[in-house]
Amino acid sequence: MNLLGKIKFDFMGKRKIAMIFSLVLITISIGSLITRGLNFGLDFTGGTAVVVEFKKDISLDDVRASLKSSDFVDASVQNFGSSKSIQIRFQSKNDAESSQLRDQLKEIITPLDTDVEVGKGDFIGSQVGEELVDQGSLAILYAIIGILLYVTMRFEWRFSIGSVVALVHDVILTVGVFSIVQMEFDLTILAALLAVIGYSLNDTIVVFDRVRENFKTLRKKSPSEVFNISIAQTLSRTVITSLTTLLVLTALFIFGGAMIHGFAFALIVGVVIGTYSSIFVASTATLTLGISREDLMPVEKEGVNLDHIP
Amino acid sequence: MNHYPLWKNLLIIFVLALGVFYALPNIYGRSEVVQTSAIKSQVVDDTLIAEMTDKLKDGNISDFEISIEEDTIITKFNNIEDQFKGKEILDTLSGYKSALNLKPNVPEWLESAGGNAMNLGLDLKGGVYFLMEVDMEQALEDKFNQIRGDSIQILSKAKISKKSLKWDDNKLVIKFKSSELAEKAFDKLRKQLNEVSFKQRTIDGVDAVVGTIRDKAISDIKNKAIEKNITTIRSRVNEYGVAEPIVQKQGAERIIVQLPGVQDSSEIKGTLDAVATLEYRAVDMNQNHNALAIMQSGKPAPLGYKLYKDSDGRPVLLSKRIIATGDQLIDANAGTDTESGGPMVSVKLNSVGAKRMLDFTRNNVGNNMAVVFKERVLSHKDETTGKNVYKEEQTVINNAVINGVFSNQFRTTGLESPKFATKLALQLRSGSLAAPVEIVREKTIGPSLGKDNIDKGFNSVVIGFVLVLIFMLIYYRMFGVVANVALLFNVVLIVAVLSLVGATLTLPGIAGIVLTVGMAVDANVLIFERIKEELALGNTPQGSIKAGYGKALSTIADANITTFIAAIVLFAFGTGPIKGFAVTLSIGILTSMFTAIMVTRAIVNKMYGNKPKLKTLSI
User: Counting C-beta atoms within 10 Å of the first and last residue's C-beta, which end of chain B has fewer, N or C?
Assistant: First the structure.
């Protein structure tokens, strides 16, 4: 079976359109990040989160309204898995205050539904939150540096810039989507972002690998043509892998439960963006940096010590 | 022409068989159990089992199994409700403690061959999680005082007179009358106090020696404080009765406590972070001293005495000399006083404490002795630094006439409630914390949520997996079947490795497995697409297989190594959920390279390798 047949498409000829498209998306993402910001979860802000299970359907606005008229003005209220259960987050300095506020909360929302069950509540100090932000940002930074080094070593510096441009593009857009839909951004989402980096890179490297190979065999073609041919050759693989990954992610999103809902969502968004970027962003950036056949010639003995594996 | 040597085939079969064997323990499921063990040296035997069986039957629980494993009795229940009810019933056994747990039903023959089921994280089995921060200020202050004392002793022993000696902004400043004295002191101190680095300085024209604690000594102090705290907290947790608790260090100043099966965090919380100890002091028996008058006038207490208050706020004058402290205590048990019927704690002292107690009581029969309960409690939060400020609260909990001479064993009676007596005994037994701790993170996962998480995680893995299998089958036909077999073995291998290395499976970990399933087919897709290309270029089927595998290899290696770098970084810098995800992701990358490249090749070779006249491939 063949999904895509033989493709002849001038991907690189469309690179101006792709670039404008990406720039628009990035502008929207950054704009949203500046104006709306991210809905940071407890992991980063510190405070207390309590899951409240109602016995009947409840509207978030009702809960918000009853909290407004009390000490919980800044509390964030959102659904947690079903329309009957909601998560309420509020600021608290230490765990004594946290459990005291939880009791207060119970009193406030009991009039909405007398059978309501107020969960045990998670507390996290704000200092811990700050550390997690630092650690998370550091992790992303180190991952990017490690990847830059590896790709430079195996390919060429233009490729490594190209792949990093693509993954920064993916991270900004994914975070941007989280800012636009105001989904809770917690530690698992950060893990998902790092997985997106890995995935996006995986995709990009496959295309680059083909480009490197084709530069050696298709001696008469221009760099732009080599990129077009390489992308076309790897396109069916790119689409199939994205499809299988999306299949499992959708299963995770629908059946995985409230705790990995956001995680699956981040990966779905990331995989879609990552697939687009490996075709249009990474190659475009590398080509724009002026890659040529000569740049790749010294690395002829690639894969030498891997030959004996299969 | 497509042929693997025999050893390679055997190696692949061996690895896969090993994988299946060590993944096997996970298919037997888990049961809700209550683990019952003796608090002290009470017997655990068949009579106890009979007693437990009767109690449970009286409580209307019929479906359970009881067995003994070493010195613990395991009662297996059919559901969470029975398990909870069962624990409540078994908690009434005096002298024994019971804990909730989720135990894998691994058959004995498998267990004896080293087969273990994966550990489940707290998010999958329910429980309480605490992250505690150790307040190092106190530990450092104690060290400052000790060094101060040592310095004074060294100087007086060497007969070097000093003008002043004090800690000023983490520096020990000792001033002298002359530079010769300073020189001599510097020489002595430097040689004898190697935890401190000394320098000779002139401060405002005065000769001085200035000492700062070495970084190494500071980190030693911190390490010791945290190690001592971990030991204390661990013994408190054990006293409380928790199955498979985790108490470990995180970073330089934090402690993680994970208590599976515990649901009521508030009760155990008060026990874990309590910093309490007892002191036995003599009561001032001088009739001329009136404690109430002293308190009301605000005048200082008479020389050698200090003013305390009892739990009702009444003043008591106690001697500054301590007879014995909680540190000298070996054992403490709560009980009921046979004479008064009130709650009491019986205490056993070590030889040092016993000797001092004997010396004191011998000369003081008829006099009063008081028990002071010392506790560090949160006073307020310093708004400028954001740090908690603690204060020491000292309360006289008992003030009684010494009836006779005693030494290592005695009772403290007249306590406010049986609950207080139990708590006090527990705190005394487990020792005191070296430095106060503060809970900076708390999380409770209900047992039903844990079960829900397992079910949902498992379901989503199965559904996602089946979808991928169907897709591969339709798209690649025979080769799809091969890829699916490899995918199946991939999951088996991941589970086997996780079980074997004792990694803990968490919800993000399951997500990592799911993601690996999605990405594991990538290698096969790369190979199969390459084979298709070769066929389209007119290569023979045999040649296409060879070229397809060969050419895809460097791409697969490059792509997987870059993802692996990301996974390693996640593991190194991540905490909690990120780490769990990174572990399964990196194991998945390694196993998927093996199954997608070597296992599929072995199968393809067996299917097509011996057919030189092969015309087409089912791809």
Answer: N
Percentage of chain A lying above the pLDDT 90 cut: 22
Contacts of B465 in chain A (CB under 8 A): 248
In sequence order, which residues have a C-beta less than 8 Å from that of residue B493 and are 6 or more positions away? B15, B16, B19, B23, B591, B594, B595
Using CA atoms, how far residue A255 sits from B3, B312, B521, B582, in Å, is: 43, 58, 22, 22
| Residues B211 and B147 occupy one common structural domain | yes
Residues with Cβ within 8 Å of A19's Cβ and at least 6 positions away in sequence, in order, are A284
* Whether pLDDT at A304 is above 50: no
State the Cα–Cα distance between residues B468 and A10, nearest whole angstrom: 31
pTM for the full model?
Answer: 0.75
To the nearest whole angstrom, how far is the Cα of A277 from the nearest Cα of chain B? 16
Structure tokens at B296: 């009301």
Residues of chain A with Cβ-Cβ distance to B532 below 8 Å are: 2
Residue-wise DSSP of B333-347: EEEE-TTT-SEEEEE
d(CA B608, CA B549): 14
Minimal Cβ distance to A248: which of B476, B517, B575: B517
What's the pLDDT tens digit per position in B498-507?
A: 998 888 888 7
CATH assignment of the domain containing B54? 3.30.70.260
Residue B389: pLDDT band with limits 50, 70, 90? low
| CA pair distance A105, A71, nearest whole angstrom | 9
Are B578 and B544 part of one and the same domain? yes
Whether residue B542 sits in one domain with residue B454: yes
Domain containing residue B96: 30-104
Domains parsed from chain A with CATH numbers: 12-38+127-299 (1.20.1640.10), 47-124 (3.30.70.3400)
DSSP assigned state of B60: T
Q: Are residues B57 and B97 in the same domain?
A: yes
A122, A147, A237 member nearest B442 (Cβ)? A122
Q: Number of folded domains in chain B? A: 4
Domain boundary at B84, B104, B124, which? Answer: B104
